[in-house]
Amino acid sequence: MAGMQAPRGTRDILPTEVSYWQQIEGIARQILHQAAFQEIRTPLFEQTELFQRGIGEATDIVGKEMYTFTDRGGRSLTLRPEGTASVVRAYIEHGFQAQGGIQRLWYTGPMFRYERPQAGRYRQFHQLGVEVLGTHSPRADAEVIALGLDILKALGLGDVTLMLNSVGSREDRQRYRQALVDYLTPFRDELDPDSQTRLERNPLRILDSKDPKTQAIAQDAPQLLAYLAPASAEHFEQVQQYLTDLGITYTINPCLVRGLDYYTHTAFEFQQLDLNQEATVCGGGRYDHLVSELGGPETPAVGWAMGLERLILLLQAQQVAPEIHLDFYVVAKGDTAERQALKLAQQLRHLEFAVEQDLSGSAFGKQMKRADRSGAKLCLIIGETEATQQTVQVKALRTSEQTLISQAKLVHNRAQLQQWLNGAGLELP
Ligand code: ATP
Ligand code: MG
Protein backbone atom coordinates (compact mmCIF):
# COMPACT_ATOMS: atom_id res chain seq x y z
CA MET A 1 0.00 0.00 0.00
CA ALA A 2 1.68 3.16 -1.17
CA GLY A 3 1.28 6.52 0.56
CA MET A 4 -0.40 5.39 3.75
CA GLN A 5 -0.84 8.25 6.20
CA ALA A 6 -2.12 8.57 9.73
CA PRO A 7 -5.89 9.23 9.60
CA ARG A 8 -6.99 12.87 9.36
CA GLY A 9 -6.94 14.53 12.76
CA THR A 10 -4.51 12.03 14.27
CA ARG A 11 -0.77 12.40 14.56
CA ASP A 12 2.32 10.46 15.47
CA ILE A 13 4.12 11.65 18.54
CA LEU A 14 7.71 11.36 17.42
CA PRO A 15 10.67 10.76 19.74
CA THR A 16 11.68 14.43 19.61
CA GLU A 17 8.28 15.33 21.09
CA VAL A 18 7.87 12.42 23.47
CA SER A 19 10.14 14.02 26.06
CA TYR A 20 7.57 16.81 26.44
CA TRP A 21 4.90 14.21 27.13
CA GLN A 22 7.02 12.43 29.66
CA GLN A 23 7.80 15.71 31.36
CA ILE A 24 4.12 16.62 31.65
CA GLU A 25 3.11 13.18 32.87
CA GLY A 26 5.97 13.06 35.36
CA ILE A 27 5.22 16.45 36.86
CA ALA A 28 1.47 15.88 36.99
CA ARG A 29 1.90 12.43 38.53
CA GLN A 30 4.09 13.85 41.28
CA ILE A 31 1.88 16.83 42.08
CA LEU A 32 -1.28 14.71 42.11
CA HIS A 33 0.38 12.07 44.27
CA GLN A 34 1.35 14.77 46.77
CA ALA A 35 -2.29 15.85 46.85
CA ALA A 36 -3.47 12.26 47.57
CA PHE A 37 -5.12 11.72 44.19
CA GLN A 38 -5.25 8.18 42.85
CA GLU A 39 -5.04 7.22 39.21
CA ILE A 40 -7.91 5.44 37.49
CA ARG A 41 -7.80 3.83 34.02
CA THR A 42 -11.03 3.19 32.17
CA PRO A 43 -11.70 1.62 28.73
CA LEU A 44 -11.17 3.59 25.54
CA PHE A 45 -14.72 2.78 24.46
CA GLU A 46 -17.97 2.66 26.37
CA GLN A 47 -21.62 2.05 25.65
CA THR A 48 -22.84 4.96 23.55
CA GLU A 49 -25.64 5.58 26.01
CA LEU A 50 -23.15 6.56 28.72
CA PHE A 51 -22.08 9.62 26.77
CA GLN A 52 -25.59 10.39 25.51
CA ARG A 53 -26.84 10.54 29.07
CA GLY A 54 -23.65 11.78 30.69
CA ILE A 55 -22.67 14.54 28.31
CA GLY A 56 -26.12 15.36 26.98
CA GLU A 57 -27.84 15.12 23.60
CA ALA A 58 -27.86 18.87 23.10
CA THR A 59 -24.07 19.23 23.24
CA ASP A 60 -21.65 19.48 20.30
CA ILE A 61 -19.88 16.37 21.50
CA VAL A 62 -22.91 14.09 21.40
CA GLY A 63 -24.60 15.95 18.56
CA LYS A 64 -21.80 15.77 16.03
CA GLU A 65 -18.41 14.75 17.40
CA MET A 66 -18.67 11.14 18.56
CA TYR A 67 -16.99 8.14 16.97
CA THR A 68 -19.84 5.68 17.32
CA PHE A 69 -19.90 2.18 15.85
CA THR A 70 -21.82 -1.05 16.13
CA ASP A 71 -19.71 -4.03 17.14
CA ARG A 72 -20.13 -7.57 15.84
CA GLY A 73 -22.54 -8.30 18.65
CA GLY A 74 -24.82 -5.46 17.59
CA ARG A 75 -23.93 -3.16 20.53
CA SER A 76 -23.60 0.57 19.99
CA LEU A 77 -20.21 1.65 21.31
CA THR A 78 -18.42 4.99 21.26
CA LEU A 79 -14.73 5.91 21.54
CA ARG A 80 -14.60 8.06 24.64
CA PRO A 81 -14.75 11.78 23.81
CA GLU A 82 -13.85 12.80 27.38
CA GLY A 83 -13.02 11.21 30.71
CA THR A 84 -15.54 12.33 33.30
CA ALA A 85 -18.49 10.16 32.22
CA SER A 86 -16.30 7.04 32.31
CA VAL A 87 -14.88 7.89 35.73
CA VAL A 88 -18.38 8.41 37.09
CA ARG A 89 -19.55 5.15 35.50
CA ALA A 90 -16.69 3.32 37.21
CA TYR A 91 -17.40 5.12 40.49
CA ILE A 92 -20.98 3.86 40.45
CA GLU A 93 -20.17 0.40 39.08
CA HIS A 94 -17.61 -0.33 41.78
CA GLY A 95 -19.65 1.11 44.62
CA PHE A 96 -17.10 3.78 45.54
CA GLN A 97 -19.84 5.74 47.25
CA ALA A 98 -20.32 2.87 49.72
CA GLN A 99 -16.69 3.28 50.77
CA GLY A 100 -17.79 6.59 52.23
CA GLY A 101 -15.70 9.71 52.27
CA ILE A 102 -14.41 11.58 49.33
CA GLN A 103 -12.80 10.12 46.21
CA ARG A 104 -9.91 11.96 44.61
CA LEU A 105 -9.20 10.50 41.19
CA TRP A 106 -7.12 11.42 38.17
CA TYR A 107 -6.69 9.96 34.70
CA THR A 108 -4.87 10.53 31.46
CA GLY A 109 -5.18 9.12 27.97
CA PRO A 110 -6.45 9.61 24.44
CA MET A 111 -9.92 11.03 23.70
CA PHE A 112 -11.71 11.01 20.35
CA ARG A 113 -13.87 13.69 18.76
CA TYR A 114 -14.85 14.13 15.14
CA GLU A 115 -13.84 17.78 14.77
CA ARG A 116 -12.32 19.95 12.07
CA PRO A 117 -8.58 19.46 12.64
CA GLN A 118 -6.37 22.52 13.13
CA ALA A 119 -3.48 23.51 15.39
CA GLY A 120 -4.37 22.38 18.89
CA ARG A 121 -7.52 20.59 17.71
CA TYR A 122 -7.36 16.95 16.69
CA ARG A 123 -9.62 13.94 16.33
CA GLN A 124 -7.49 11.88 18.66
CA PHE A 125 -6.10 14.07 21.43
CA HIS A 126 -5.04 13.55 25.01
CA GLN A 127 -6.39 14.82 28.27
CA LEU A 128 -5.24 14.67 31.83
CA GLY A 129 -8.03 15.20 34.31
CA VAL A 130 -8.92 15.15 37.98
CA GLU A 131 -12.24 14.51 39.71
CA VAL A 132 -13.14 14.97 43.38
CA LEU A 133 -16.36 13.13 44.16
CA GLY A 134 -18.47 13.29 47.29
CA THR A 135 -18.27 16.85 48.56
CA HIS A 136 -20.17 20.11 48.14
CA SER A 137 -17.38 22.04 49.81
CA PRO A 138 -16.16 25.07 47.89
CA ARG A 139 -12.75 24.14 49.29
CA ALA A 140 -12.74 21.24 46.81
CA ASP A 141 -13.37 23.69 43.94
CA ALA A 142 -10.47 25.84 45.14
CA GLU A 143 -8.22 22.84 45.68
CA VAL A 144 -8.65 21.41 42.19
CA ILE A 145 -8.16 24.83 40.62
CA ALA A 146 -4.98 25.31 42.65
CA LEU A 147 -3.73 21.89 41.59
CA GLY A 148 -4.30 22.68 37.94
CA LEU A 149 -2.37 25.89 38.33
CA ASP A 150 0.42 24.12 40.22
CA ILE A 151 0.86 21.69 37.35
CA LEU A 152 0.91 24.49 34.75
CA LYS A 153 3.39 26.46 36.87
CA ALA A 154 5.66 23.48 37.40
CA LEU A 155 5.76 23.15 33.62
CA GLY A 156 6.81 26.78 33.32
CA LEU A 157 3.39 27.98 32.11
CA GLY A 158 2.52 30.10 35.12
CA ASP A 159 1.25 33.08 33.14
CA VAL A 160 -2.08 31.53 32.14
CA THR A 161 -5.28 33.38 33.01
CA LEU A 162 -7.87 31.74 35.22
CA MET A 163 -11.37 32.52 33.97
CA LEU A 164 -14.02 31.92 36.58
CA ASN A 165 -17.81 31.91 36.66
CA SER A 166 -20.73 30.35 38.44
CA VAL A 167 -23.55 28.77 36.48
CA GLY A 168 -25.60 28.42 39.67
CA SER A 169 -27.96 25.63 40.57
CA ARG A 170 -30.46 24.03 38.20
CA GLU A 171 -33.16 26.25 39.66
CA ASP A 172 -31.05 29.39 39.21
CA ARG A 173 -30.51 28.48 35.59
CA GLN A 174 -34.19 27.79 35.01
CA ARG A 175 -35.06 31.32 36.10
CA TYR A 176 -32.21 32.79 34.11
CA ARG A 177 -32.95 30.82 30.98
CA GLN A 178 -36.21 32.69 30.32
CA ALA A 179 -34.57 36.08 30.77
CA LEU A 180 -31.83 35.07 28.34
CA VAL A 181 -34.26 33.78 25.72
CA ASP A 182 -36.31 36.99 26.03
CA TYR A 183 -33.18 39.05 25.44
CA LEU A 184 -31.84 36.97 22.54
CA THR A 185 -35.04 36.36 20.58
CA PRO A 186 -35.10 39.82 18.92
CA PHE A 187 -31.52 39.15 17.68
CA ARG A 188 -32.42 35.72 16.39
CA ASP A 189 -31.55 36.34 12.73
CA GLU A 190 -28.15 37.83 13.62
CA LEU A 191 -27.02 34.79 15.60
CA ASP A 192 -24.83 32.14 14.00
CA PRO A 193 -26.78 29.07 12.78
CA ASP A 194 -25.69 26.86 15.72
CA SER A 195 -26.83 29.48 18.18
CA GLN A 196 -30.19 29.82 16.43
CA THR A 197 -30.91 26.15 17.04
CA ARG A 198 -29.66 26.48 20.60
CA LEU A 199 -32.15 29.24 21.33
CA GLU A 200 -34.77 26.58 22.08
CA ARG A 201 -32.64 23.63 23.05
CA ASN A 202 -29.75 24.99 25.08
CA PRO A 203 -29.74 28.81 25.15
CA LEU A 204 -26.96 29.07 27.74
CA ARG A 205 -24.48 27.63 25.29
CA ILE A 206 -25.02 30.67 23.05
CA LEU A 207 -22.98 32.66 25.58
CA ASP A 208 -20.08 30.33 24.78
CA SER A 209 -20.30 30.80 21.00
CA LYS A 210 -17.06 31.50 19.15
CA ASP A 211 -18.82 33.50 16.42
CA PRO A 212 -17.76 37.18 16.80
CA LYS A 213 -21.18 38.61 16.00
CA THR A 214 -22.92 36.29 18.44
CA GLN A 215 -20.26 37.10 21.01
CA ALA A 216 -20.97 40.81 20.63
CA ILE A 217 -24.68 40.24 21.19
CA ALA A 218 -23.99 37.98 24.17
CA GLN A 219 -21.84 40.69 25.78
CA ASP A 220 -24.94 42.70 26.70
CA ALA A 221 -27.15 39.78 27.70
CA PRO A 222 -28.48 39.63 31.25
CA GLN A 223 -25.96 37.90 33.48
CA LEU A 224 -26.54 34.59 35.18
CA LEU A 225 -24.63 35.88 38.21
CA ALA A 226 -27.52 38.25 38.90
CA TYR A 227 -29.88 35.27 39.09
CA LEU A 228 -28.00 33.23 41.69
CA ALA A 229 -29.98 32.27 44.79
CA PRO A 230 -28.31 33.29 48.07
CA ALA A 231 -26.83 29.81 48.68
CA SER A 232 -25.35 29.70 45.17
CA ALA A 233 -23.96 33.20 45.51
CA GLU A 234 -22.38 32.20 48.81
CA HIS A 235 -20.74 29.13 47.29
CA PHE A 236 -19.24 31.31 44.57
CA GLU A 237 -18.11 33.91 47.15
CA GLN A 238 -16.37 31.21 49.14
CA VAL A 239 -14.57 29.76 46.14
CA GLN A 240 -13.25 33.24 45.38
CA GLN A 241 -12.25 33.79 49.00
CA TYR A 242 -10.30 30.51 49.09
CA LEU A 243 -8.58 31.30 45.81
CA THR A 244 -7.56 34.67 47.22
CA ASP A 245 -6.27 32.93 50.35
CA LEU A 246 -4.12 30.77 48.07
CA GLY A 247 -2.81 33.84 46.26
CA ILE A 248 -4.52 32.85 43.01
CA THR A 249 -5.77 35.66 40.80
CA TYR A 250 -8.71 35.18 38.47
CA THR A 251 -10.96 37.01 36.05
CA ILE A 252 -14.70 36.61 36.35
CA ASN A 253 -16.14 35.89 32.94
CA PRO A 254 -19.96 35.85 33.02
CA CYS A 255 -20.04 34.30 29.54
CA LEU A 256 -18.09 31.22 30.60
CA VAL A 257 -20.60 28.38 30.70
CA ARG A 258 -20.36 24.65 30.68
CA GLY A 259 -23.45 23.93 28.66
CA LEU A 260 -24.54 20.69 30.28
CA ASP A 261 -27.49 20.34 32.59
CA TYR A 262 -25.54 18.56 35.26
CA TYR A 263 -22.97 21.34 35.57
CA THR A 264 -23.58 23.45 38.64
CA HIS A 265 -21.98 26.41 40.34
CA THR A 266 -18.28 26.80 39.61
CA ALA A 267 -17.10 26.84 35.99
CA PHE A 268 -13.53 27.71 35.06
CA GLU A 269 -10.94 27.63 32.33
CA PHE A 270 -7.23 28.28 32.15
CA GLN A 271 -6.47 30.27 29.03
CA GLN A 272 -3.32 31.46 27.36
CA LEU A 273 -4.53 34.75 26.01
CA ASP A 274 -1.61 35.83 23.85
CA LEU A 275 -1.87 32.71 21.77
CA ASN A 276 -3.63 33.01 18.44
CA GLN A 277 -4.46 29.33 18.32
CA GLU A 278 -6.90 27.56 20.61
CA ALA A 279 -6.53 29.39 23.90
CA THR A 280 -8.05 27.07 26.48
CA VAL A 281 -5.63 24.54 27.92
CA CYS A 282 -7.78 23.36 30.79
CA GLY A 283 -11.51 23.46 31.50
CA GLY A 284 -13.57 22.26 34.41
CA GLY A 285 -16.23 22.85 36.96
CA ARG A 286 -18.66 21.42 39.42
CA TYR A 287 -21.11 18.71 38.35
CA ASP A 288 -23.36 17.95 41.29
CA HIS A 289 -25.96 15.96 39.33
CA LEU A 290 -23.96 13.75 36.98
CA VAL A 291 -23.60 10.79 39.33
CA SER A 292 -27.35 10.65 39.97
CA GLU A 293 -28.05 11.29 36.30
CA LEU A 294 -26.09 8.12 35.51
CA GLY A 295 -27.94 6.06 38.09
CA GLY A 296 -25.84 6.56 41.21
CA PRO A 297 -26.74 8.26 44.47
CA GLU A 298 -26.76 12.07 44.69
CA THR A 299 -23.01 12.83 44.76
CA PRO A 300 -21.64 16.32 44.30
CA ALA A 301 -18.36 16.52 42.40
CA VAL A 302 -15.87 18.87 40.79
CA GLY A 303 -13.03 18.37 38.32
CA TRP A 304 -11.14 19.56 35.26
CA ALA A 305 -9.45 18.25 32.14
CA MET A 306 -6.31 19.58 30.44
CA GLY A 307 -5.63 19.25 26.74
CA LEU A 308 -2.09 17.91 26.51
CA GLU A 309 -1.49 18.76 22.84
CA ARG A 310 -2.30 22.39 23.62
CA LEU A 311 0.02 22.34 26.62
CA ILE A 312 2.80 21.01 24.44
CA LEU A 313 2.22 23.72 21.81
CA LEU A 314 2.62 26.27 24.60
CA LEU A 315 5.74 24.61 25.94
CA GLN A 316 7.23 24.55 22.47
CA ALA A 317 6.26 28.18 21.81
CA GLN A 318 7.97 29.21 25.05
CA GLN A 319 10.90 26.96 24.19
CA VAL A 320 10.76 25.25 27.51
CA ALA A 321 12.65 22.30 26.07
CA PRO A 322 12.86 19.26 28.30
CA GLU A 323 16.41 18.20 29.02
CA ILE A 324 17.95 15.33 27.14
CA HIS A 325 19.60 13.06 29.63
CA LEU A 326 22.49 11.05 28.32
CA ASP A 327 25.64 10.39 30.33
CA PHE A 328 27.89 8.41 27.96
CA TYR A 329 28.22 7.93 24.23
CA VAL A 330 30.35 4.91 23.34
CA VAL A 331 32.37 4.94 20.14
CA ALA A 332 34.20 1.82 18.91
CA LYS A 333 35.67 0.40 15.71
CA GLY A 334 36.90 -3.13 14.98
CA ASP A 335 35.65 -6.51 16.15
CA THR A 336 37.27 -6.69 19.55
CA ALA A 337 36.62 -3.02 20.28
CA GLU A 338 32.95 -3.35 19.38
CA ARG A 339 32.55 -6.41 21.59
CA GLN A 340 34.15 -4.57 24.49
CA ALA A 341 31.96 -1.53 23.84
CA LEU A 342 28.82 -3.64 23.97
CA LYS A 343 29.83 -5.00 27.35
CA LEU A 344 30.99 -1.64 28.71
CA ALA A 345 27.68 0.00 27.79
CA GLN A 346 25.76 -2.68 29.65
CA GLN A 347 28.01 -2.47 32.72
CA LEU A 348 27.54 1.30 32.86
CA ARG A 349 23.76 0.91 32.56
CA HIS A 350 23.83 -1.49 35.47
CA LEU A 351 25.48 1.36 37.40
CA GLU A 352 22.37 3.39 36.48
CA PHE A 353 23.98 5.63 33.91
CA ALA A 354 22.31 6.51 30.61
CA VAL A 355 24.45 5.16 27.79
CA GLU A 356 24.17 5.13 24.02
CA GLN A 357 26.55 3.07 21.96
CA ASP A 358 27.23 3.85 18.34
CA LEU A 359 26.18 0.81 16.34
CA SER A 360 27.06 2.15 12.91
CA GLY A 361 30.53 0.68 12.51
CA SER A 362 31.39 3.81 10.52
CA ALA A 363 34.67 5.73 10.63
CA PHE A 364 35.74 7.27 13.95
CA GLY A 365 35.26 10.81 12.67
CA LYS A 366 31.60 10.15 11.87
CA GLN A 367 31.00 8.41 15.18
CA MET A 368 32.59 11.34 17.04
CA LYS A 369 30.31 13.80 15.23
CA ARG A 370 27.31 11.82 16.39
CA ALA A 371 28.73 11.79 19.93
CA ASP A 372 28.87 15.60 19.84
CA ARG A 373 25.25 15.83 18.72
CA SER A 374 24.01 13.19 21.16
CA GLY A 375 23.83 15.45 24.20
CA ALA A 376 26.03 13.05 26.18
CA LYS A 377 28.49 14.51 28.66
CA LEU A 378 31.27 11.99 28.19
CA CYS A 379 32.40 10.01 25.18
CA LEU A 380 34.09 6.64 25.62
CA ILE A 381 36.35 5.65 22.76
CA ILE A 382 37.71 2.19 22.06
CA GLY A 383 40.02 1.87 19.07
CA GLU A 384 42.29 -0.99 18.10
CA THR A 385 45.04 0.00 20.55
CA GLU A 386 42.62 0.43 23.43
CA ALA A 387 40.98 -2.89 22.57
CA THR A 388 44.32 -4.72 22.78
CA GLN A 389 45.19 -3.02 26.08
CA GLN A 390 41.63 -3.31 27.40
CA THR A 391 41.62 0.42 28.02
CA VAL A 392 39.25 3.21 26.99
CA GLN A 393 39.69 6.88 26.14
CA VAL A 394 37.36 9.11 28.15
CA LYS A 395 36.60 12.42 26.47
CA ALA A 396 34.67 15.29 28.05
CA LEU A 397 32.59 16.49 25.10
CA ARG A 398 32.25 20.06 26.33
CA THR A 399 35.94 20.73 27.07
CA SER A 400 37.58 18.10 24.83
CA GLU A 401 39.72 17.05 27.81
CA GLN A 402 40.75 13.41 27.42
CA THR A 403 42.19 10.67 29.60
CA LEU A 404 43.02 6.96 29.28
CA ILE A 405 41.85 4.41 31.82
CA SER A 406 41.51 0.63 31.97
CA GLN A 407 38.03 -0.67 31.21
CA ALA A 408 37.96 -2.62 34.47
CA LYS A 409 38.81 0.46 36.53
CA LEU A 410 36.27 2.57 34.70
CA VAL A 411 33.32 0.44 35.80
CA HIS A 412 34.64 -0.10 39.31
CA ASN A 413 34.61 3.50 40.44
CA ARG A 414 31.10 4.81 40.15
CA ALA A 415 31.81 7.82 42.35
CA GLN A 416 34.67 8.85 40.08
CA LEU A 417 32.44 8.61 37.01
CA GLN A 418 29.78 10.68 38.72
CA GLN A 419 32.33 13.39 39.50
CA TRP A 420 33.42 13.50 35.88
CA LEU A 421 29.79 13.73 34.78
CA ASN A 422 29.25 16.57 37.24
CA GLY A 423 31.87 18.52 35.34
CA ALA A 424 35.02 17.92 37.40
CA GLY A 425 38.23 17.63 35.36
CA LEU A 426 39.22 14.18 34.20
CA GLU A 427 42.14 13.68 36.59
CA LEU A 428 42.67 10.16 37.79
CA PRO A 429 43.03 9.57 41.51
P1 ATP B 1 -13.25 23.76 22.85
O1 ATP B 1 -14.23 24.82 23.23
O2 ATP B 1 -11.86 24.27 22.57
O3 ATP B 1 -13.77 22.82 21.80
P2 ATP B 1 -14.16 22.00 24.87
O4 ATP B 1 -15.01 22.83 25.73
O5 ATP B 1 -14.79 21.12 23.85
O6 ATP B 1 -13.05 22.90 24.17
P3 ATP B 1 -13.44 20.27 27.01
O7 ATP B 1 -14.41 19.22 26.64
O8 ATP B 1 -13.68 21.12 28.20
O9 ATP B 1 -13.14 21.18 25.75
O10 ATP B 1 -11.98 19.58 27.14
C1 ATP B 1 -10.96 20.08 28.01
C2 ATP B 1 -9.72 20.45 27.25
O11 ATP B 1 -9.37 19.45 26.31
C3 ATP B 1 -9.86 21.68 26.40
O12 ATP B 1 -9.68 22.83 27.18
C4 ATP B 1 -8.74 21.51 25.40
O13 ATP B 1 -7.51 21.92 25.96
C5 ATP B 1 -8.73 20.04 25.18
N1 ATP B 1 -9.43 19.68 23.94
C6 ATP B 1 -10.76 19.58 23.73
N2 ATP B 1 -11.03 19.19 22.47
C7 ATP B 1 -9.82 19.01 21.87
C8 ATP B 1 -9.41 18.60 20.57
N3 ATP B 1 -10.28 18.25 19.62
N4 ATP B 1 -8.08 18.54 20.30
C9 ATP B 1 -7.17 18.87 21.23
N5 ATP B 1 -7.49 19.26 22.48
C10 ATP B 1 -8.80 19.34 22.81
MG1 MG C 1 -15.12 21.27 21.80
Automatic annotation (TrEMBL):
List of residues binding L-histidine: E82, G83, T84, R113, Q127, E131, R258, Y262, Y263
Domain of life where this protein originates: Bacteria
PROSITE patterns according to UniProt: AA_TRNA_LIGASE_II
Gene Ontology MF: a single term: histidine-tRNA ligase activity
EC number(s) on file: 6.1.1.21
Biological-process GO terms, alphabetical: histidyl-tRNA aminoacylation
Limits of the Aminoacyl-transfer RNA synthetases class-II family profile domain: 1-315
Annotated catalysed reactions: tRNA(His) + L-histidine + ATP = L-histidyl-tRNA(His) + AMP + diphosphate + H(+)
Main location (coarse class): cytoplasm
A GO CC term attached to the entry: cytoplasm
Pfam families, per database record: HGTP_anticodon, tRNA-synt_His
Top EC group: ligase
Compartments reported by the entry: Cytoplasm
Keywords of the record: Aminoacyl-tRNA synthetase, ATP-binding, Cytoplasm, Ligase, Nucleotide-binding, Protein biosynthesis
InterPro entries: aa-tRNA-synth_II, aa-tRNA-synth_II/BPL/LPL, Anticodon-bd, Anticodon-bd_dom_sf, His-tRNA-ligase, HisRS-like_core, HisRS/HisZ, HisRS_anticodon
Similarity annotation: Belongs to the class-II aminoacyl-tRNA synthetase family.
PANTHER family: HISTIDINE--TRNA LIGASE, MITOCHONDRIAL-RELATED, HISTIDYL-TRNA SYNTHETASE
Subunit structure: Homodimer.
HAMAP family, A to Z: His_tRNA_synth
NCBIfam families on file: hisS (TIGR00442)
Protein known as: Histidine--tRNA ligase
Gene that encodes it: hisS
